DNA sequence: ATATGTGAATTGATTCACAGCG
DNA sequence: CGCTGTGAATCAATTCACATAT
């Protein structure tokens, strides 16, 4: 099995966003050169990343924007609906539940959970809040695939365990901690405090920035 | 110059968090084995990561928690204050300005900016909102080092240009777009939509998850 | 005894150069 | 002729094995 770099998957997401932008501008054709420039990678890299999944271009001519966009959506699994739930309705959970563009991004917010008796049963941003004890049943009934873990750090592992037990397939982990899940569940960290600390490091170590052409 | 992997910097941030947690529990000593388990990497990896920066342990005994923690804080540049500003006071910018734990994390929110006349001059979460035209002066006067870019995608590049012109050193980019800045400015992306799409990919391609011991 | 620190070996990712196709 | 697609070469990162220090 050809092993695909994780960095390739991140770049495919970037290429897809660029293609969507080009399509919105009515641009019909593009090239590895143009995608590379907008994604700030090399044209070699673009072609190699795409080559892991097939042949999508026309030699001598480049790529057709709608075609390549459709292919990338298929590769990334965005040609189907994904049902998501928010676990932890604190500030961050509420901010995400307010996020107005979910449907446009192929994801559908189906449920919100919290373990605070004061908010259970209430409606927040148009969504009823369930208690954590309802998780297994609601995940099953609503076919929830992905959980947004927005609980405090101290509660993150227990909440992740509950998500796994309920049969969730992927977790977007906003808590600043490494959570432990079975191999078959995929976790993506979204940790702005960690990003902030990396910025700090690179500001005091300006020599360590890789050079570009 | 020994080139340090970017992944190493991310892991150092994780080790630091673990050390802080151990210190809060009153634990005085640790080992590459323990750090590795909590960070979900190999003990080799922990030792190699630390070796890029010096020798911090005692052979046969392991590491002293407060000492290694202090060293990692120094390496990451967290032994000094960092002044940050938020650019874009929409939902996300407001949620971040409400975040209650900034000081505890070595960062100090000094200013908020927006280009909407309706919010300029108002106070949000205890912070006065400035117009974008005030950016150069406020960045200089308040010694702002890092900007949180929380404007809509379409406004991100222009806002980044303004930050760079004002002399900012690092950007935490929450907008779902690759921004173009001079090499001396460090950008860290914080893009939960991209993370969500990666989750989608790994759910439909479960075979591509790397194996662990 | 035990766990760190590190050169060497291995594995993985990116870059390159050009073959292949329109 | 131009731009994609891809094996080969280079470069980078991780893993290993063990020398080293307490």
Helix and strand arrangement:
The structure is a homodimer of 213-residue chains.
Chain A: H1 6-24, E1 29-30, H2 32-39, H3 43-51, E2 63-64, H4 65-76, E3 82-87, H5 91-97, E4 107-114, E5 123-124, E6 127-131, H6 135-142, E7 146-149, H7 153-165, E8 170-173, E9 186-189, H8 192-204
Parallel strand pairs in A: 3-4, 3-7, 4-6, 7-8, 8-9
Antiparallel strand pairs in A: 1-2, 5-6
Helix pairs in contact in A: 1-2, 1-4, 2-3
Chain A binds a DNA duplex (22 and 22 nucleotides) through helix 3.
Characterization of the model:
The structure is a homodimer of 213-residue chains. The first copy, chain A, is α/β, with parallel strands linked by helices. Chain A folds into 2 domains: 6-75, Arc Repressor Mutant, subunit A (Orthogonal Bundle); 82-193, Rossmann fold (3-Layer(aba) Sandwich), CATH 3.40.50. Chain A has 8 helices and 9 strands. Chain A has helices at 6-24, 32-39, 43-51, 65-76, 91-97, 135-142, 153-165, 192-204, and strands spanning 29-30, 63-64, 82-87, 107-114, 123-124, 127-131, 146-149, 170-173, 186-189. The two termini of chain A are 33 Å apart. The relative contact order of chain A is 0.09. The model of chain A has no long low-confidence stretch (mean pLDDT 94). Chains A and B meet through helix 1, helix 5, strand 8, strand 9 and helix 8 of A and helix 1, helix 5, strand 8, strand 9 and helix 8 of B. The structure holds a DNA duplex (22 and 22 nucleotides).
Spell out the key features of this protein.
homodimer; 213 residues; alpha/beta; Arc Repressor Mutant, subunit A; 17% strand; DNA-binding
